[in-house]
Design brief:
The complex is a heterodimer of chains A (691) and B (221). Chain A has 691 residues and is of the alpha/beta class. Chain A is built from 29 helices and twelve strands. In chain A, helix 23 packs across helix 25. Helices cover 43% and strands 17% of the residues of chain B. In chain B, the strands form two sheets. A six-stranded antiparallel β-sheet of chain B has the order 3-8-4-5-6-7. Classes of the chains: A alpha/beta (691), B alpha+beta (221). Chains A and B meet through helix 4, helix 11, helix 12, helix 17 and strand 12 of A and helix 1, helix 5, helix 8 and strand 7 of B.
């Protein structure tokens, strides 16, 4: 074992708190699964690159006590090419000498993993290698000489199959070691590195690694370096870099990357041998091929959409919502709560009873209430009135939306774990080119069908600013989230009918592509060619899917229910203060004149500003009461669909895109929503479309 | 024009200027660098006196004589690189170190023979253009080039990447870290609706425009 001075110091002054483990690796090699197993805390794991855009921290139980464990976004290069790579590189850069690195490698793709290993070795990290997906490598006939790999790098290597939990706990048993491996670069680079090591400031990583970052011309690194050294030293450093570039007469970054890759390839061929023919799984490989076939791929896509419609639309929005809304909430919970508050806060009133079920609406028994009775009525109405926290907010939030969100995220989780989603990128790349995006943007868009806020965060996986702007904009404008879909599918059961749904779908799709096309012309920047790793299809693991769905649903409910409660509370106050009528009058020209809706609809539109699905639910409520006809509800729901999804999404937009950009988007979206809604109203009134 | 009438240092200077011009950088200070300015200045003066270069303000430019001379050096240099890299399969470091010396020695005849042997390639292993020579303009019969863009390689056939012609560093770096770089063995899995490239055990979806820019050499079994 190498005992560097740093290691010796760390041993003597050992405190568990200062040590931490950092998990590093290429995208989609199972880092998050290993994290989940080691940290006893689960995070979203998926079979496509880019889920871990934010860093997750957990605690790992060791004999010495719990030790922090950090999961980082997947990287292909520690000289960063993208935002995620900067995040990971910075974590490693700021690490202390006593931190440990667990590098997860995809055994069958050893070369790409070793490319990172070489960079870690240059930093002189203390590490252990997890050779993951050992089973897949075996299946393809590969055999790996672990001993030789350990000899080359001087760090322990452990074969693992993370999704089957094999070998993962062995990672705890081995002691991490410092790399004892060095790559020899071109003499021009080596002599520059020697000079640089005298100038660079010491830090957690080796001077040689820092020198290589300087020579690579990595701006994210040199930028922070400028603050750490004097101007004179910085100038000297840049001079050495320039000198080396002149001597080599080519791009230093490419020279360094190529040398590393060549070395990774050399080591890979030394230790990894294909000793057997890959086992052919005819059916599986055929299916894999079919999913990206120019014709078969779309057939499979249609099949998947059909299944999803049945699972989410028929089972979720139909059967389950019927159970939760009608049976559970309207049948049991709400009547019980109404009776409970009637008992607790007595005042003279008589609830409307339909089919033997108590409704929140009531007629006052006495037109004049005493102060006490008024107070009782206020509290009663706050909880179980027309705008009651239970009868309105929780009923919408839990009864209508919850079943759909669960079924959608379950279906999404299955597709994700299967590795199907990147294949969608292949099928839709060309279509997305028309709106200035490439197939990679399919991933956030699909996730947007679950939750637009989550999806807006995920736009970070896109490579250029232009793509991130367009995707954020389209998500907010024309990608309905699962809650929205829940309400729409609910309408399908007993509202606007199949034809109405088709009109709604066509309008949203048209707006999506038209707005996207215009945005692609207005937002500056070049188109970015698609470069996307396609992971193999894998049999989904039930545990993964269930845990992932639960985590997402939890996240979702935490976001939805409070907004519903706050929104309902505000509506309640507005109606108590008789301000609702005032706002209705204020919005009258827009609502009545332009959209052709009754003036009470202002209420639903107001609700739509909080969450658009909530607003849509408000329309349903009015529809059920018979205030709206079919055409009006279609106009209302379409207008609201194009709103910014919810307060949370608006906040995330501001956070990710900045105030100026976000408010410009809000303005455009508002104008488009009311514009399209009004046009639809005109079309329906003239009878061009008959429902 | 007699060959090699300049010394190695002067030729290197011209070469650097050519490479900078390829990248559209034109200021004098860029050619000069910040190191050994005096020596560089003397080289520049020398070359100007000999009628190879002209300067106006901050700009340095070739005179016709200098341009023709430099084109030949660049041609020799890059052809040598292709030869050493693709045919002799030397490592990039060895290729660069040797090509740097060989370019100053070989004459026109040798250069043209190498060019013909290689099938008149138009790009060096780094993806930079190789200036055309007389031999390329004269060739009458169409020789099947040794190196073809990836979209011309049959599906499923293994090919070795020779160079990737991309201007943007970002695209190149992303391809490199996914395992597509000169020397890597790749094969095409499909072209439509989006191309899928197999590099090692990694499948990569790629834009068709990028596929055309990856130049490969079919592997003979």
């Amino acid at each position: 074992m190498t005992t560097s001075p740093a290691a010796a110091i760390q041993k003597s002054a050992f405190t568990p708190n200062i040590r931490q483990f950092i998990i590093v690796g290429n995208p989609n090699v199972g880092k998050s699964v290993i994290f989940g197993l080691l940290a006893n805390k689960y995070v979203t794991v998926s079979n496509y690159p880019g889920t871990t855009v934010t860093v997750t921290k957990g605690w790992m139980e060791l004999p010495e006590g719990p030790i922090p464990l950090i999961d980082t976004p997947g990287v292909n290069n520690l000289t960063p090419n993208s935002e995620e790579e900067v995040v990971t590189r910075d974590i490693i850069l700021s690490s202390q000498a006593c931190d440990k690195v667990i590098q997860v490698l995809d055994t069958k793709n050893l070369k790409r993993g070793l490319f990172l290993t070489i960079q870690l070795s240059e930093m002189k990290s203390c590490a252990i290698l997890a050779l993951n997906m050992w089973d897949e490598a075996k299946l393809r006939g590969y055999e790996l000489n672990i001993k030789k790999l350990e000899e080359i790098f001087g760090v322990p290597c452990v074969p693992t199959v993370a999704i089957q939990k094999k070998g993962v706990y062995d990672l705890k048993k081995h002691e991490c070691r410092h790399f004892s491996y060095k790559i020899q670069y071109h003499e021009a680079i080596e002599s520059a590195l020697a000079k640089l090591s005298k100038l660079l400031p010491p830090s957690g990583i080796s001077l040689r690694a820092q020198g290589l970052m300087v020579l690579s011309g990595d701006e994210t690194f040199t930028g922070s370096l400028r603050e750490k050294v004097s101007e004179e030293v910085f100038r000297r450093i840049m001079e050495i870099r320039e000198q080396a570039e002149h001597m080599l007469n080519r791009d230093l970054r490419r020279a360094i990357d190529n040398a590393r890759m060549a070395e990774a390839e050399r080591i890979s061929t030394l230790v990894l041998k294909q000793t057997q023919q890959p086992r052919i799984r005819r059916l599986w490989n055929g299916l894999e091929r079919m999913t990206t076939h120019p014709f078969g791929g779309f057939v499979i896509l249609c099949g998947i959409l059909f299944l999803m419609h049945h699972f989410v639309g028929v089972l979720g929005a139909g059967v389950l919502v019927d159970l939760t809304e009608n049976r559970l909430f309207n049948g049991i919970i709400n009547p019980a709560m109404i009776r409970f508050f009637d008992f607790l806060m007595p005042f003279a009133h008589e609830h409307v009873i339909a089919d033997g079920i108590v409704l929140p609406e009531y007629a006052l028994g006495d037109s004049h209430l005493s102060v006490f009775q008024s107070l009782f009525r206020f509290v009663h109405d706050f909880f179980v009135g027309e705008y009651g926290a239970i009868t309105m907010a929780l009923t919408y939030g839990l009864a209508i939306i919850f079943p759909v969100v669960i079924t959608f995220f379950l279906a999404f989780g299955i597709l994700e774990d299967l590795g199907y989603l990147p294949r969608l990128s292949i099928l839709l790349n060309r279509l997305f080119k028309t709106i200035g995006l490439n197939g990679k943007a399919v991933l956030p868009m699909m996730l947007g069908l679950g939750c637009d806020t989550m999806a807006t965060v995920t736009t970070r996986i896109l490579d250029t600013k232009k793509e991130r702007i367009i995707t954020t904009f389209l998500l907010a404008l024309a990608v309905p989230c699962s809650a929205q879909l829940a309400v729409i599918l609910f309408l399908l059961q007993g509202g606007i009918g199949m034809k109405g749904i088709l009109v709604w779908v066509s309008i949203v799709v048209m707006v999506f592509f038209l707005a996207g096309w215009m945005a692609s012309r207005l937002v500056p920047g070049d188109d970015n060619p698609l470069i996307l790793e396609i992971p193999p299809l894998r049999i989904p693991s039930l545990r993964n899917i269930v845990l992932k769905t639960l985590a997402r649903v939890e996240w979702y409910l935490k976001e939805v229910i409070p907004v519903f409660l706050i929104g309902t509370g505000m509506l309640f106050l507005l109606s108590e203060l008789n301000l609702l009528a005032l706002i209705e009058r204020f919005l009258r020209p827009l609502v009545v004149g332009w959209l052709g809706l009754p003036s009470q609809s202002a209420e639903a539109i107001l609700m739509g500003f909080f969450r658009r699905d909530y607003g849509a639910a408000g329309f349903i409520h009015m529809f059920e009461k018979g205030i709206l006809d079919q055409a009006q509800i279609l106009v209302g729901v379409t207008t609201i669909t194009l709103f910014v999804p919810c307060v949370a999404n608006a906040l995330i937009m501001i956070k990710e895109r900045g105030y100026k950009m976000a408010f410009a988007m809000f303005a455009i979206i508002m104008v488009m929503a009311f514009g399209v809604g009004g046009l639809l109203n005109q079309i329906l009134q003239r009878g061009w479309i008959v429902l | 024009m007699p060959e090699h009438e300049l010394n190695e240092n002067q030729e290197m200077f011209l070469e650097r200027l050519w490479c900078l011009k390829e990248k559209d950088k034109n200021a004098e200070c860029v050619v000069m660098g910040t190191q050994d300015q005096l020596g560089q200045k003397r080289l520049l003066e020398d070359l100007r006196e000999k009628g190879y270069l002209k300067t106006s303000g901050e700009d340095v430019d070739f005179l016709p004589k200098g341009e023709a001379y430099t084109r030949d050096i660049i041609r020799r240099r890059r052809l040598t690189e292709v030869l050493l890299y693709n045919i002799l399969k030397l490592g990039m470091n060895a290729v660069e170190t040797s090509a740097c010396k060989i370019e100053h020695i070989i004459n026109q005849e040798v250069t043209d023979s190498i060019c013909a042997f290689l099938g008149h390639p138009d790009q060096c292993p780094h993806g930079r253009p190789i200036p055309r020579g007389n031999c390329c303009r004269q060739r009458s019969e169409n020789i099947e080039p040794l190196i073809k863009p990836l979209n011309k390689i049959p599906l499923g056939k293994q090919a070795r990447v020779v160079f990737v012609a991309a201007d943007e560093g970002g695209v190149l770096r992303r391809l490199t870290s996914l395992g597509v770089y000169p020397g890597a063995v790749v094969s095409m899995r499909q072209h439509q609706p989006t191309a899928i490239l197999k590099a090692g055990e990694t499948d990569i979806a790629l834009e068709p425009t990028l596929i055309e820019r990856i130049h490969c050499r079919l592997m003979t079994l």
